[in-house]
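Let us work through a complete example step by step.
Step 1: write down the sequence.
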Amino acid sequence: MIVRTMKPSDWKKVSNVYLEGIATGFATFETKAPSYEQWDNAHTTECRLVAEDDNGSLMGWAALSPVSSRCVYGGVAEVSVYISEKSRGKGVGKLLMQHLIDESEKAGYWTIQSGIFPENTPSIKLHEKVGFRYIGKRERVGKIHGVWKDNLLFERRSSRVGID
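Step 2: predict the structure and record it as tokens.
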């Protein structure tokens, strides 16, 4: 397995993995994959990663989104990490997250955060394994298919960036 920078030409495979996450009903509030242009505009230009197996099949992806356009939040980003259905439970998420943490720190991010549905136990465990801490629950923060959903907020603070 290799982790590399995502290219625009990866979008078809990336969006397919995203659709698999959407299909679980507990990975995102989104109900359909955006166009590449929409996705590209919503995510930072750095810290876009894909994991591939030895045959070049996309096993998962991770990227960051800015949490705000205000300059005081310039070092804070939100994590997206999605693993293909056939690759779940094989360590792909942990490898992607370790690379994403490293890349985020190189890019100057001191805090990365994730909002996770309470039902998404694998994502909660993954975030805890790579050093995220539970901050709190945002109750009934959004609806999906007409049902209000809670969101658990996790964050990871860098021990190298933003400490001075």
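Step 3: interpret the result. The helical segments are 11-24, 36-42, 92-106, 121-129.
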